[in-house]
Structures are given as C-alpha cells and as structure tokens.
Amino acid sequence: MTKKTYINGVGCISTQKTFDTVFLEEAVYNQNETVLSIVPPVYKDYISPAMIRRMAKGVKNGIVASALAMKDANVENVDAIITGTGLGCIEDSEKFLKNILDNNEEFLTPTSFIQSTHNTVGAQIALSLQCKGYNFTYVNGAVSFESALLDAKMQIEENEANSILVGGVDENGEYTLSLFKLAGRIKKENDLPSEVLNANSSGVIYGEGASFFVLENERNANTYAEILDVEIVNTLEENEVESALISFLKTNNLKISDLDAVVFGFDGNSDSDSYYRNLSENAFAKTPQLYYKHLSGAFDTASAFALWMASKVIKTQEIPEIIKVNSVEKPAYNTILLYNQVNGKNHSFTLLSK
C-alpha cells in the first residue's frame, strides 16, 4: 500500500510579511520596483548572533523558514531534508569571485567559497537539527523546488521516510541582478509601474525567498493538504499545455471541472505569459484563478511560495482578493492545481487536495 503525502507544517519568508500573520492580510502589491527584497524576520529568535554574522541571506532565511515549518508541524526532527534552489548562495559566490579579482588570486580566505555552494542551506539546517538523514539539494532551474518535492513524495510513498523537510530557497545577489538586467531578464525602470497580469513588456519583477514544508505520511489535526501528484515537463508548445494538463489530471481521475482553483505563475513577461493567458481565457475560464509572483517576485523557486499559498487556501478556505486573477468563486476549495513555467521551459504541475 503506497503511503500518502501530507503537508503538516509550513514556513515562509518572502518579499511579503508571511510570518506572524494569518494569511497575506498585510500583503502589498509593489509596482514601483524591479527587484523585491524579503521582509526579514527577527533572526536572533532562531539563530545565535555569532552564527548570524557569518551566514548568507539565503541560509538565514532557510533556517528560519524550516524552523517555522517544524514548529507548525509540531515536530522536533525529520528523517530527511531536501532543498531546491536555482542560484544557491549566490551572494557568497559573488563575494568569493570578487575577492579573487581584488586580491589577484592571492591571500584568499576560503569562508565565502565554502558557503557559496548550493547545498549550504540544507547542510546548515541539518547541523542545527543534528539531522543525519538523507540530505539532498536539487539545482534545476525553475523546477528545482518541484524536483525536491517529487523526491520527497517518492520517498514517503515507498516508505523510505516518514517525515521530510522540503524547501525552496533563493536569494538576490547584486552583481547577478545587474547581469540579469543587462540580459533583459529583469524589467527596465521605464517599464514601471508594471502589471503582472497584463504584461506589455518583456522581463520580470525579480524576487527572493525561502518556503519550507514538513511532509509526513500521516494526517493530523494540523494537516494543510495532501500532495496528490507532481509532474515536470521540460518543453511544451503553447498549444500542447492544455492537453498535457488534462492528461495529468486524468491520471488522478480528475477533470478541469473538478478543480476548485488553479494557481498560475504569471510573471509579467510578455514573451511567455501567453502560456497562462490561453488557459486562463479558455480551458479554465470557469475556474477560480490565482496568481502570486506580483507578491513574491519571480525567481527559480518562486513556485515554493505558490505551494505555501495554495496550502493556506485549502486550510483557511479563503482566497485573499490580492491573489485573484478572476472573480469566479467556489463554495469550497478542496482541490487545487498549480502550473508554472519560465520562458516556455520547465513546466510543472502540482496537485493538492484537502
């Protein structure tokens, strides 16, 4: 009998106030900046001040988000820690490379090199928990987080683990952002204010964040939702997405009409938002539609923020106005589909149910 996968705890540090709040009641839609920064928690409540000084942003946020998720799930430890990250600890990578250049490749301290690897976040969380279990980091572009989720789900199904901490973490690095701006990945200042839903320029509003989840094989009083299925598809043409989604739902004995809501990864990039718009205007016209990158910013693991949001919707049975794409409503929100892609690549479908 394959075990089911339940989300029993969530923790989210993002460009909104997503801790010490109920659910996005303090969210702000910032249309005047091209890069959003996280709203920082009080780190010293979670990490000793001596450690904080040496920690990169992403590591600190990952530790706090994972601590929040574990507290929420009421667990002291987990069997495995699986992290997804697109750029890893990019700030420390930048520091190290800058040191190489500034010091003519001499007299280098290895600290920022050691802390610049992608798996630093997972390692630091394991150290703080003294968790010696399976610890893996996926670096896979826009499906980094889904790769971690898929791994966790398979482990729970096959009884390899009973409780797993899964998260998606990315941080902003100044130099990397300047390169993204040069490459046109980030919107230009004169494209502001920008509407994420009615994209009329290319590029995105960039963000950062850390969202963690405690997944377990048994439901309890605090369970948010069950993860029914996760699928990753590398490339799809715009006209193939709908049938791919329909067959994904069919595998789970569902039709589009069975969905109580769908979460789209609209990111305001006019080059690829048509993937969502086609679905939004046609196949899903009668389904409540939600979006999130106007709040979280766009980054490789922004979809972890979407999972946090969808889990909250199922648990609270409420949809804040600020995340609605359309005005369709349902009496209850029990089954939610998440669909994300970036520039027409790395499509992911995630299915949640009460």
Automatic annotation (TrEMBL):
Chain ranges of the Beta-ketoacyl synthase-like N-terminal domain: 47-220
Keyword annotations of the record: Transferase
Gene3D superfamilies: 3.40.47.10
Top-rank taxon, per record: Bacteria
GO annotation terms (biological process): fatty acid biosynthetic process
GO cellular component assignments: cytosol
Molecular functions (GO terms): 3-oxoacyl-[acyl-carrier-protein] synthase activity
Entry annotated with the keyword Cell cycle: no
Keyword Transferase on entry: yes
Protein name as catalogued: 3-oxoacyl-(Acyl-carrier-protein) synthase
Organism: Flavobacterium resistens
Lineage, opening ranks: Bacteria, Pseudomonadati, Bacteroidota, Flavobacteriia, Flavobacteriales
